[in-house]
Amino acid sequence: MSRILKRPMFRIGGQANEEGIISMAAPRKNYQAGSEYRTRIDELKKIYQQSAGAGPSTYSNLGDMLISGGLNLLSGRGAGKGTLGAVAEAYKEPYAAFSKAGAAEDAFKRQIDIAAATQGITSVDAERLARLKVKQEGENDEVVTLTKLLQLSGVTNPYAVAKTQIDFKKRHGEDMATTPVNRDEKGKLSARQLAGISPGQVFLINDPKSGLITARKTDEAGNFQLIDPLTNKEKVPPAVTPPKTYSEIISQNPLSIRRNTLMQEYLKKQQEKKKNISSMGD
User: Fold this and answer.
1) Cβ proximity of 199 and 220 under 8 Å
2) Dist. CA 280–CA 282, nearest whole Å
3) Alpha-carbon dihedral angle through residues 69, 74, 75, 77, given to the nearest 10 degrees
4) Which residues of 15-37 are buried (b: 16+ CB within 10 A; e: fewer)?
5) Is 113:105 a contact under the CB 8 Å cutoff?
6) What global pTM score does this model have?
């Protein structure tokens, strides 16, 4: 036996191939702590439960049912139906209320579970995407941290908002308002969000058509001006001088030039026809 164990096949060291049945011998990967999704969902579930507060417990609802049923028995509910019939009649309505309260509490807990799962999965995916972009672009963890906070706050496109705010601060040394102001399809800004911004502070406008727009609030009335994020100066649209003469209008509109040319050709042909008709009459 000792000679067999001295063969070369038993003297080769190293780690076993972690495939096939040998994979069972690989080191444990410690799944007992749960995945990143499960950890985030549990955290959010605790937050939602604390925010909702403690509802009526099962013991409380059970006590209400017993008290209501006992009072019905004492008041003579179900009299003349025998002992079991009287008890059934007395506890009919209290038991229905007890079952309804329990079903409502279970439905509320399911809603909390669904909300925590949805928000947890979304936030983890957004954080992983932010990490991937940070790794590709060589940024620091500041973008990841701010993206996570914006995601938990329900901000749309949190990575783009975080990156714009951090780039603006690095470039100009000025902090933007944390939460962007949403603009609806009609072009109106959220008055509630705009009221939370101090005059003179720079903020982002989340426009559904144009994306993120940088602006600065000018006064308490909610007026603002658009600024260039690269220069931190007011963005002035280029002046357009309207044409004053008909020839200038024609020269600036190729379609009008073509239409005018066709009209001149048509008028010239009509004049030629009139000349031919008059010559034939002579």
Assistant:
1) yes
2) 5
3) 60
4) eeeeeeeeeeeeeeeeeeeeeee
5) no
6) 0.40
**Phi, psi (deg, nearest 5) at residue 224:** -150, 165
Dihedral pair phi/psi, residue 146, rounded to 5°:
-65, -35
Q: Determine contact, residues 189/181, Cβ cutoff 8 Å.
A: yes
CB atoms within 10 A of CB 224: 20
Residue type, 84: L
In this predicted model, what pLDDT tens digit does every residue of 255-271 receive, in sequence order? Answer: 666 666 777 787 888 88
Give the whole-angstrom CA distance, residue 101 versus residue 154.
32
Taking 70 as the pLDDT cut, the residues of the chain under it are 1-2, 4-34, 53-61, 74, 78-79, 133-140, 237-260, 280-282
With tokens 């909610």, the residue in question is 222
